[in-house]
Structure formats: structure tokens, C-alpha cells
Write a structure and sequence with these properties.
Blueprint lengths: L8 E3 L7 H15 L11 H4 L2 E6 L5 E5 L12 H10 L7 E5 L12 H6 L4
Parallel strand pairs: 1-2, 3-4
Antiparallel strand pairs: 2-3
Amino acid sequence: MSAEPNKAEITNAGSALSAQELEDLTQKLVAALKTVYDPEIPVDIYELGLIYKVDVADNKDVTVDMTLTAPGCPVAGEMPGMVKDALTGVEGIGEVTVNMTFDPPWTPERMSEEAKLELNMY
């Protein structure tokens, strides 16, 4: 994981993409992830820290490892599709795969400062 608690690890397993290409795609992917909201919390899933890892393959296929605020979350069955739909709209990427994980479990410490302010957690 990265140094900032809410920031997803964005990786490129190979070396076919230049650093600039990966940076450009990262900005587009993060922007797309920020359009997806947990229906019970008025904060996007990226700022909530629900995205653990985004891997961009050499062919620009994208694999996302994410979690939910709780395993029993009412949108558990829908959230992967919502994320896939948002990322599929990003120009230049290939196939999108979304994996759900609860290891490690999500905690409020993963939220960004912005999310904490939005939820009055200070």
C-alpha cells in the first residue's frame, strides 16, 4: 500500500507503458473512480479508501482490488459492476476486472482528509 492511507496503489506489472502513459491513465482512472459513491455515505469510493489497488497491464487491461465498508454492505453485489461501468468509460483502457476483498478489512483510517471533513469526523 502507499504512504497515504486512502490512496490506492496504481501499478503497471510490465514495462510496456511509459511513466507518462501510466500517469495519464492513473489520472483518468482516479477521476472515474471518484464518480462512484457508496449509496449510504455521501463520499466517493476512492476518498473513502475502498480502492486498495489498481493494476494496469501492458495491454491496458485494468484489474481493481477493492473492499466495502462492511462485508454485509447492502450494495455488495452491485458495487463491482458500478466500478467496472465507471472504468469501462475511460478512453484507452482494455478489459476491466474488479475483485472484492475483505483482507485487510476496511477501517475509517483509510479515508482521506477530504472524506473525514465531509463526514464531520473531526
